[in-house]
Amino acid sequence: MLLDPENTLFVRGATPVLLLAPVHDALPLVAAPDGAVPRCEGWSIVPRLTLCVVDGPGDHGLVVPAFVAPVVGGANDGGASSGMADWCEDAEQAGGAVVLSLDQLPDTLNWSVLLSSGTVRGGFMPALA
Hints:
Number of helices: 2
Strand content: 25-35%
Number of strands: 8
Helix content: 10-25%
Radius of gyration: 13 Å
Oligomer: single chain
């Protein structure tokens, strides 16, 4: 499935996050009220500057045209391409990324509300080389 980059938000950090809308029903529900996001078994991510691939079991997965996707966070909030290169580096250093699928992208990032909502799907996905 090709996901419109407008339905994504790449968030930089020590453990980078990829927010997706709409919900991908094949992903498990996230129960992380303490903020510890569990590993998403059977799923992986391939973070690249031009395309980001989220691969799941069987036929499940998606591709995001990452080069034009929005990136927030980090010290260098320059352009989307610069931010995406930094996000990919964050994912490489973390060994993967947290991928969360939501009904809709939030206006503001409130991790405690997001992770305790009971509607978020996903988890930490290891990066493939």
